[in-house]
Write a structure and sequence with these properties.
The complex is a heterotrimer. Helix content of chain A is about 80%, strand content about 0%. By secondary structure, chain A is mostly helical. Chain A has two domains: about 260 residues, no CATH class; about 220 residues, no CATH class. Classes of the chains: A mainly alpha, B mainly alpha, C mainly alpha. Chains A and B meet through helix 13, helix 15, helix 16 and helix 17 of A and strand 1, helix 5 and helix 6 of B.
Chain lengths: ~475, ~500, ~100
Amino acid sequence: MNEAMALTIGLPLLGALAATVWPRRSRCIGILTLLGSGASVTWLFALVMRHGEAWQALGGWQTGLSIALHADALSSLMLMLTALVALAVSVYAIRYFRAQPDTSRFWPLWLLLVAALNGLFLSADLFNLYVTLELLGLSAVALTALGGKRESIRAALRYLLVGLLGSMGYLAGVAILYAAFGTLDMRQVGAQIGVDPASEMALLLMTAGLLLKTALFPLHFWLPAAHSNAPAPVSAALSALVVKAGFYLVLRLWSEVFPQAISAPGAMLIGALGCAAILWGSWQALQAQRLKLLAAYSTVAQLGYLFVGLMLLQLTPAGPQRELVFGAVILMALTHGFAKSSLFLAIGVVQQHAGHDRIAQLDGTAQRLPATTFAIALAGVALIGLPPSGAFLGKWQLLSASLAHGQWLLVLVMGIGSLLAAAYVFRVLGHAFGNAAFASRPVNVASEEWPALALGMFATLVLGLGSGWLWTFIEVAA
Amino acid sequence: MNLSNSLLLMILASSLLPGLAIFFLREGSHRLRTWLNMFGALLKLVLVGVLTWGVFQEQSFETRWLLAPGLELVLHADALSVLFVSLSTLLWLVTTVYAIAYLEGSPHRSRFFGFFSLCVTATVGLALAGNLFTFVLFYEILTLSTYPLVAHKGSADSVRGARIYLAYTLAGGLVLLVGAVWLQNLAGPVEFVEGGVLSQLPTELHGQLVWIFLLLMIGLGVKAALVPLHGWLPKAMVAPAPVSALLHAVAVVKAGAFGIVRVVYDVYGIEFSADLGVLLPLGVAAALTIVYGSARALMQDNLKKRLAYSTVSQVSYIALGTAIFGPLGTIGGVVHLVHQGVMKITLFFAAGNYAETLGIHKVSELNGVGRRMPLTTLAFSIGALGMIGIPPVAGFVSKWYLGVGAMQAGMAGWVLPVLIASSVLNAAYFLPILYRAWFRPAGAWPAEHIVHSKRETHAGLLWPPLITASLALAAGLFASAPFSPLEWAELIAQREYLR
Amino acid sequence: MFDTSILYGLLGIVLAGLGLHAAILQRDVLRRILAINILGVGVFLVFIANAYKGPDAAADAVPHALVLTGIVVAVAATALALALLRALNAHQEDADRE
């Protein structure tokens, strides 16, 4: 029972090491490792479904002292997201990073990223979360700078500095919590939290630090440059997974550690920032001239939805209503993960065929790559929140919760956000209809186009039509 | 009950699966594509026939699939769904034949027919929706699947027209969504039940219910082209003729009108709606649209635009029928769903023929076309006479029931003048066309495509309008025959008022 | 009685504040990196100050372990930052030469 969790973290770590030692085999090692850790994630998923949760104290030490690994519904779902997206991105990356210096640099860093993500989702201990968070940040930065362009390095450097500020905030909060409560285990701390100055200070510092890492408006300034200047597979992982890790942490902390300490005005502030993110991000995406910049700003906007959901979660007292909103927020996070990675991979294909990603000159390329254009369409549908994507269901639940709380402003903002998203998605898709030379075959370059298409189908079809079990899963294994 | 559970899914699959398969066909596989299209259409027709028989026998057909807590996908066949589904299926078959002939030699046909099939799947899903959530779901999918059809030609105009179409319909969809979510918050999952489900709610919620009704009507009214939400319809005329035929006879516009019928009868219930006082505003909006649409149609020289405004006007008869309290008004509105569909598609097919064969886009270019293309113009004439309301074409039947229903409901004071004015205006913009076509001498045609045969144009372009024109005629002549649209509408009204 | 540990704690907070201030307001990247280091040191000091459990009891070992881990992480992060800065400067020199 315990091996599943250790394998999930350990396999990518070992893989990273192996890829460093044998650079010629790094692609093979990468794919095998990810398949292996994917299998252990599936195993873990099944275990959690059967037993409700999985728990392990590493090294045999007792709680409070040891590093504990814990898997519940939320962790398992995020691990599943990571495993699937990582696999798809890796398949694409095999062709993308064909040249040698890039290959030997990409795979070790990539596997470290996956290991860090898995570790983050499985940690139950506040300091362990810090370590995995830092590992995640460092590997993400290094991957962003891969490719060596001046823009990428500058963006990566800024990302690093901002990320470090964020982690320091988080660490300061951990220091205060340890000083006040003498333990680092999330559950134990959660049991002792109250409305005292130490808890509030810790809450403020940790949330601020994590918001910096999750790029919530107005702390999002580093994201567009970083995500749009990174290589396509890296951008996919950054937008789909890395910022989600930050959100996951905020969700965890707010639900399990700090619920007593959070005041209604605090939650409303987060919601207001989320609204601002939706509007600002969507507006900027509409103005963007390059596809990658559009996608990056779209991430800023979509994260806003998640934080609006977080606010609704805080406002709803415990009970079936809260479970409903919780599931909706997770569903939106999952859908966005698949949709955004699909979009970035598709953009990567477009960029390699056209040599650029300027939207205004997209005509010929969009019509020569029908499968990729369809992937963009699928991802776009999920970003707008139209059926049959999972985001439609999530949006319905969030609207329902907003109306139940009388928050008409949220309804208005989410509505405008959807329309703006439709505007920028269809601005791109409009280029698929033109009179340039068109392809006679639906799928042109199989191994490049399939990952984007598969991820898009996941976001729009699988999660839209097959996610009824999500809520039962959360109920069983909360 | 296994057959009944899967019959509805099979009906959906009969257009979804061929559609998906067509996407993956190479551009050059004409035969396979045609075969897939026709197979899907015919299969669907057979399955819908089975369904019709079953619903007539009062059998129950239902499929459920839980997507999320409180959000269940429900497919359910009652008399009203069968009416819309059979209309869609029959007209899809005819339009497929037409489209295959119309698009001969043009690019991107796999893409076109793929989305065409998706569009029909969405329409059928909408017709078979058993609750408000499912309806909204398919309503939005319909928007998505029709966008590529409107933009198909790929010119700057087409893409712009498609973008306007999208802006209107997505905004409308959003308003509909908010209304539906709000309603579900108040009343739980809203299933479509004959007679409505909301009359049981406590009185203090009635104010909110009125607001929700407004939101739902706005959301549905965009697709149903209620003034002032109709702006997308003339702009969407940039689409190829088969698309205009499908959108205006069957899919999009009827989806909106069908939604209005559903909300008033099966969500609110006709008696509760009357109690709430929402029927009168709806009727007034419909009346305004009828008159405005006809007036604008008069001013158009472009043939398709004239037909578009005519649609704006005619579809509101359905909304008007819904607003008239009483079985006769209901029958008039519901049966016009079918009649208008059949008549309007004939007109659009004819317009498409004129454009394809002779390059005619304007009314002023129609002089003498009756001699050059007699059969097409005959079909057009039948459709036009039906629009005006001249017996024995079907349009007369709907107007008759609307008029008598209004008299019975005591609303004759303003409904009858609207009906009369509308008929007069219809005559004013259709009769001159007929005069020009039959009695004026022909000039030079803008761009003639010589067809090397004795027929006036391709067979695939000729048969569909003739078929639909005969259907329009038959629906009027044999209105009292069993299984005519009128008989079916009477069945529906019976089930709505007899709770 | 004024505990040295409280002094260390306060010093840690002051250092953290100084570091944060400089990290946000300084323009030069190298100074920003140094500022973040100082910020880190400040936070670590706060951690360490808490390890003091009184004149008789042994110091709490957990914060020691945590701070050691933190120092390692900070070193790695600083190294990465400096490497990126060097690469950026190399690009700048190339651009200047042209």
